[in-house]
Amino acid sequence: MELRILCIGDVVGRPGRQVLREALPVLTKQHSLDCIITNAENSTDGAGLSAAHYQKVVAAGSHLITLGDHIYRRRDIIQVMETADNIVKPANLPTQAPGKEFAIHRTESGVGIAVISVLGRLFMKLQANCPFAAADRVIAAIPSDVKIIVVDFHAEATSEKIAMGWHLDGRASIVFGTHTHVPTADERVLPKRTAYISDLGMTGPYDSVIGRDRNRVVGTFISGVPSPFDVATNDTRLCGIIATVESTTGRASAIQRIRYDANPATQR
Prior knowledge:
Elements: E1 2-8, E2 10-11, H1 13-31, E3 35-39, H2 51-60, E4 64-66, H3 77-83, E5 103-106, E6 112-119, H4 131-141, E7 148-154, H5 158-168, E8 174-178, E9 188-189, E10 195-197, E11 202-205, H6 214-223, E12 236-246, E13 252-261
Parallel strand pairs: 1-3, 2-11, 3-4, 6-7, 7-8, 8-10
Antiparallel strand pairs: 1-12, 5-6, 9-10, 11-12, 12-13
Helix pairs in contact: 1-2
């Protein structure tokens, strides 16, 4: 049986949450989706995820949730990380860091889909352990009956992301990058049938600089004077990929980029 898995790039602020709520019922019906995996790293005011907004991301239709370097920016998410079974921490954070290292969603047909997350180390402010070793360790710990494994590599450097794709080719069903908020055009199925893309892009306002008010960001670049980078509001889109994966082997057969533009009436 082939399953269709939607993987959604970093949700940014209220605009991102709004388009998520609008898009998921439409995309689920159009593409007969079996599982939706959402990176909710920036869902609360553009940095982190609050407990209340976690509930909204789930209510919108997300089955599994990943985060990134802003994981503990909102302190009330810690209890969620410790108790919920559908959200993961980056597995290469210290063992004392709150949260689970993998989560499993069971589809209506009973097929298990596991997700794990790791942080890159190149050019990242939040220091973490080796992502390659962490991915190896967590994949080995996933129950053997779960054949579909999805990896979110939250990283800055494209080279590090590509290296992870090759490292996990044939051992993960899908490897996608997040964090840079710009969708890449290198989606492909690797030789051992792992679906790969360097970055899913952003779910949020594209009339912006990676989700923030463009005038303030440009002004700061020009003047060198810091200013608050408020979340932008216009040209809201959902970006990500849909991968087709065989349920008994975990092998991917297809990957396509997805973009959903919000109804203009919902963008303010």
